[in-house]
Amino acid sequence: MLQALLPLTNFTIEIFHFLGGIGLLSRDIYRELVGSKIYWRLLGEQIYQVGIRSAPLIVVTAVTIGAVMSLQFGLGLEKFGGKMYVPKLLAVTILREMGPMFTSLMLAARVGAGIASEIGSMVVTQQVDAIRALGTSPIRKIVIPRVLACLITLPILCAVTNVVANAGGLFIGAVELKLDPGFYLLKVLSTSSVGDYVSGFGKTFFFSLFISIPACYFGLNVKNGTKEVGIATTKAVVVSSILILIGDFFLSKLFWIVEKFL
């Protein structure tokens, strides 16, 4: 009986250890961000790595999402004579849910893995210890530029996804569903509200933290050589993706409550 409960106990301890580590790392990031200077050159490099180099992947993903959803909605609603509602459904779904969530998941897969492996390699090769020996904080020089880069670039990439995904839906709507492009665009613009956009856009700031902070945490906690770098990379992607999926529900509920009172 005790042996059967041992894996569950170890898993629970690991979760609490992770939550405590994330809390301490977040505290250190806040302290360093408030009381110290920002390395602007390093921040610029990370914005390029996180944002610009991720743009092609995000664009391809956005076009695919818009095209597939437009086709599926159209084929499904055509049976009930509701094909004309495709632009409305697609626009709201992309702006509120699919745009920010898929953008964040793609960024977690690419950037989260990159951050964890890069920092983990720095720990293994003792570059982090060298930074400490020179009297510089690794949090300030390594972690903060990556966290800020995610905070800056993910909302921008989400905005790109919203536009490109709706454009992909419009193309499929015109070619496959035989909807008039002008009618499609008019419905998208008239249906979409500021609340729809803000709801999805606001999630990306939380999702960026769900990606960058766990990735930095797992990278900094690599201890047993290069083998553990791969494990840390896998953990970073899995944990970030789970946090995004779970957080999406609670954030959707939160924004719905806020909109209800406003």
Task: Tag the structure with descriptive keywords.
87% helix; 262 residues; mainly alpha
Description:
With 262 residues, the chain is mostly helical. Helix content is 87%, strand content 0%. The protein has helices at residues 2-35, 40-52, 55-78, 86-124, 127-133, 138-175, 181-191, 194-220, 227-261. Helix 3 (55-78) packs antiparallel against helix 4 and helix 4 packs parallel to helix 8. The chain is elongated. The protein starts with a helix and ends with a helix. 40% of the residues are buried. The mean pLDDT is 87.
Net shape:
elongated
Strand content: under 5%
Q: What structural class do the secondary elements suggest?
A: mainly alpha
Instruction: Note the total helix count.
Output: 9
Low-confidence stretches: none
Number of strands: 0
Based on CA atoms alone, the radius of gyration comes out at: 21 Å
* Helix content range: over 70%
Largest sheet geometry: none
Order of helices and strands: HHHHHHHHH
Q: Terminal Cα separation, in Å?
A: 53 Å
Averaging pLDDT over every residue, what do you get? 87
